[in-house]
Amino acid sequence: MAFKEKLREKILQRVEETHDFREKYDSVVISEVTVKQAYGGMRGVRCMVWEGSYLDPFEGIRFRGYTIPEVRKLLPKAPGGHEPLPEGILYLLATGDLPTEQDVREIQEEFKKRMEVPGYVFDMIRALPRDSHPMTLFSLGILAMRMDSKFARAYAEGISKAEYWEYMYEDVLDLLARLPRVAAFVYRYLYRDDQQIEPDPSLDWAANFAHMLGYDNPEVYELMRLYLVLHSDHEGGNVSAHTGHLVASALSDAYYALSAAMNGLAGPLHGLANQEVLRWILELKKSFGDRMPTKADLERYAWDTLNAGRVIPGYGHAVLRRTDPRYTAFREFALKYMPDDELFRIVSMLYEVIPNVLKQHGKAKNPWPNVDAHSGVLLYHYGIREFPYYTVFFGVSRAIGILSQLIWDRALGLPIERPKSVTLEWLKEYVKQKEQEAR
Ligand code: CMX
């Protein structure tokens, strides 16, 4: 297949380039770590290589050098569609090159061949109670499929390091082909009385996902394509990406790594924030009864949340220091398709109010909205109202970035991760020595 051959060509090139670069520059210092960073979630410590994307605090994400507006413009579209196809972002993240229409069609064909999910995965999900969180079922579904890991089987039989990436590639494509099926199954099991919908192989990956969820509407297809592209990658340090990369560094296969990554995404400070945003907005709306809240109302409501010791979900970011361009892309979508939607109007008003509130509050380093502040209202508008499920959409998308990097982890032969930890006693001793040296 052209995708795999393209990857092979890129890998051969990049491995050599990396080797030459490292021979010359391995000892160059790119980061120093302070005590604050050791206690403070390692913010800003540069200690990991991630090929797919780079996050600039002020500009936002670039996928292989392309901004979100560029990706929306340049990636192939579905016939009659305007939003980029996620198959295209997979090609871009994995190879570094923009795909042609033909490249995307080939990935679609490959997905169709691989989308069958073993029945025991569905049986296992059905054995779990209906009040389980959808992310729990989604993560378990991924884990259950690892019986089929081609990497794990080949490794057990004995393969050379040079071949690792090829088996990882196979697992990555199998997993991506199956993810929408597993995710849609979870949705229909939890919220549609287990009335399952079979995949429609004539549809693209995102549209087929919407179809299996039960939303056969061209606008939902478009939203799904955009959604699955926008969340796909956000460089390597975020919890889900880093977790996937860390777990796979022990040569755990893609299924183990992705399931673990999804468990990190399920935290309320990370991917679960999209569910929290919707919950917060709906509670806010309810508290004002039938009337549309004013900006002053929203300001008071925000202060009440902060004074209760809670965070404003969807605002702030560990790296970004301006409005997330993913938020802006969703806003453009909303302005095009649903400008009069009530919740969208509230989201827009919040955008005018919250940054000032957070600035006055004085804690958050970034008072601007992130992607999660906007994504939920779009899904809600089209009738996807089960907001605990929203993080699953994020997960299906984020899998593209995490899994394409895993191919590179294997190709570059990255070793098991093992940063050094220290104790408070060690820190005290170190600081004492430093102070003595300075005298
Ligand atoms: N509301 C209230 N307080 C906030 C805040 C917000 N939206 N964002 C940050 N703060 C607070 C932090 O809780 C922290 O308080 P303490 O000093 O009391 O611990 C302080 O401001 C400094 O935090 P920071 O350095 O600005 O932010 P962090 O890098 O520590 O955390 C994040 C980043 C995203 C976890 C945080 O901004 C947050 O909790 N936001 C709300 C949840 C959210 O939207 N998460 C989604 C992020 C995107 C994603 O991963 O999907």
According to CATH, the homologous superfamily is Citrate Synthase, domain 1
Determine Rg (CA atoms, Å). Answer: 22 Å
Give the count of structural domains: 1
Main β-sheet description? 2 strands, antiparallel
- What is the terminal separation in angstroms? 65 Å
CATH topology: Citrate Synthase, domain 1
Shape, please? globular
| Strand line-up of the largest beta sheet | 1-2
What does the average pLDDT come to?
97
Which structural class best describes the helix and strand composition? mainly alpha
Instruction: Assign the CATH class.
Output: Mainly Alpha
Please, could you describe this protein's structure?
This protein has a two-stranded antiparallel ribbon with strand order 1-2. The protein is globular and about 65 Å long. It is 61% helix and 2% strand. The protein contains 20 helices and 2 strands. The longest helix has 28 residues, at 164-191. Strand 1 (53-56) and strand 2 form a beta hairpin. The protein has 439 residues and is mainly α. It has one domain (48-418): Orthogonal Bundle (Citrate Synthase, domain 1), CATH 1.10.580. Bound molecules: carboxymethyldethia coenzyme *A.
Outline the secondary-structure elements.
Blueprint: H1 2-25, H2 35-39, E1 53-56, E2 60-63, H3 68-74, H4 86-95, H5 101-114, H6 119-126, H7 134-144, H8 150-157, H9 164-191, H10 205-213, H11 218-230, H12 239-249, H13 254-265, H14 273-287, H15 295-307, H16 325-337, H17 342-361, H18 372-381, H19 390-411, H20 424-438
Antiparallel strand pairs: 1-2
Helix pairs in contact: 4-19, 5-9, 6-7, 6-9, 7-9, 7-13, 8-9, 9-10, 9-19, 10-11, 11-16, 11-19, 12-13, 12-19, 13-19, 14-18, 15-17, 16-18
The structure holds carboxymethyldethia coenzyme *A.
Carboxymethyldethia coenzyme *A (CMX) binds next to loops.
